[in-house]
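Example is below:
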Amino acid sequence: MQKSNLRLLLEGKTLYDGFPIKNEGDKHLAHLSMEEEKQHLMLTVDFLKAYNAKLSLERDNLKKGIRSNREAINEEIASIDADFESGNIHQFIQMLPELRTTEVNFNFIDAMYNRTKRMIPKPYFGKITVDGEDIYIGTGTIRNKDNDLLIYDWRTPVASLFYENETGALSYTIPDGTQLDANVSGRRQFIVEDGNLQKMFDSDMYIGDEVLQNMITDSSQSKLRNIVSTIQQEQNEVIRQPLRQDTLVYGPPGSGKTSLALQRIAFLLYQHKDILRPENILLISPNEIFNDYLSDVLPELGENHVKNITFYRLLGQFPYFKARRFETVYGNIRRLREDAGAQDIYEFKSSLRYFKSLHEFLDGLAGRGMEFRDLKDKDGIFIGKEKLNDIFYKELSHHPVSKRLLKIKERLLSLYSARVAEIREARFRELNSQNKYIGEKHQLKEEAHSYAKSQLKQAHRQIMLFRFIHIEKLYINSIKDNGFRNRTIRSIKENDFKYEDIAPMLYIYIHLLGAHDRSVQHVLIDEVQDYSNIQYYVMRHYYRRASFTSLGDPNQQIHPADKDPLVAKNHVHKHLVRSYRSTNQINAFLNSLVPDSIQSVSVDGEEVQKLHSRNHTEKIREILRAQDRPQVAIITPARESADALYDELAGEFPQFRNLQEKDTLYNQSFIILPYYLSKGFEYNTVILTDAAEYDNEDHIMYVLSSRATRHLYIIE
């Protein structure tokens, strides 16, 4: 137990002087006032700064020493006698352990330097009192020079008590499997920014959502305290689902789904830290920008982040499709919004009806219908598709389809090796028969081998990528409707694959070859309502070793075309009903668009402002000039209108950024963007321009309006 930091302050000591052993008469830290906690935090920050400065000096000195030792070793190597019998070699060998020890020490110092630097702005985020001892919890373990623990890493066994739903008699498990009983008499959470304590609160249960934290610390909203506890309990039912349990969560905008997903990541990582690392968890999010938006919202992860991907980027896991040009989701939304006639084929290819028929088609390939393509080299046909068909249906018919294809690949690689040897020998004889000197015999053999491989380079690449299977033709054959089939043929011939073609083609590849990821153990899908059933099951089959937590809201589909409801078998289904991020007035407006969709438990604010103006740009200027706002998003109906508006406003309001589809970095404060990029984000103030564009699309107006947390302006 450490001596009270406040007493150190009174004694005129700095925190870096160390935390001596605490006397029994010291004031219990769990009962510290706000001011006393601020002083404790100040001392902790001072300690981390001093410790970091000391580590910086040690790191620089070690770096210089390592550089000097390496220079000495290089000189020693240069002076070693060729016979290895002199003393030089022994002296050289003796230097190696010393260098290794120094480098190990440097790596430790460097890691501690980076840890303390990272923790200075936010040393800890919570505290629990366990059996009378106060434990501050942060993103890394910090000890003083007397080896006393000042901050416990959130992953330590005892820190797991911080995330429980109650106080009193609890238990935790240590690494050897022993379960230890403990009495938790207090749980305190801190909101810390830039080394300053902003707010704190005591609670029987851990509150993980930042908005809920702010609600519970707002003295003017004390009536919400019990509601916060109820919401957290509902979220905990999802957060604490077993690792191997598939879960589908639906909830209205502002119900904390994204926050819930991130808390689930943190929970899984500390609950299963012996088998689960951040790289074993995958977050599938709506767009690349959203990934950056989420990158720093899990302080518990420290420097580690889970992997993230979009459905479109999933194509990159399959080299077979390289050089195929696929439409992006944004291009798809724009095209279907501008051309309603294109929606029928999108809806067909995304439908359960087509998905079921595709599955039946693929199951039938064991008996007939497999499509191959000729493999070619520089001299012509390497092997014909007819021969491949014979091997598949006659020689390997007793094997499952996927095994047949793998065995064909093995045979093709053997044939490739034989052909390389044949061409190499012929080329070597040709080179070796030259009347003039063109190189030594081993050089001629190397040249002949390179020549043979270059002749068969195309065929080898086709074999390795399984391009002897004609996925495109199989896809075409799976479409029974002649109209849709002919339109698909035209797109493929022009190498103009549509977004709705991605999922069926990936499904064919995965189904035929059994392709799957081997490292991901848990997948979180945000905005799951934006995926069709076939897209969802592409992800399920490719990440077949993982369990899934999928979150969304059927009322927030931003795509102009319709989709069948998601069929999620063997999932636990959870429904969140309370919305607490936007004001009650904004939530009431959302309920006017989609009746009874939201149960609002938020704060009151101003009414939604519906404005009519012939000059939308000037009206926006008036809104922006009226008062300073911490965040503003101006959402337009199209990319072209976003670009034009940005050009008109940039001179007077240079703080705004024009968000692009290709952007991967997110600046939340002041932004102009087309409506289809707004999914998943939230802003203090939202201005919707040209709102008449959504007159017959209440579902899009619902999504866009729900992006606002405090102020919503709709300009018509």
Notes: Residues 34-79 form the longest helix (46 residues). Residues 1-27 have pLDDT under 50 and may be disordered. The longest strand covers residues 179-193.
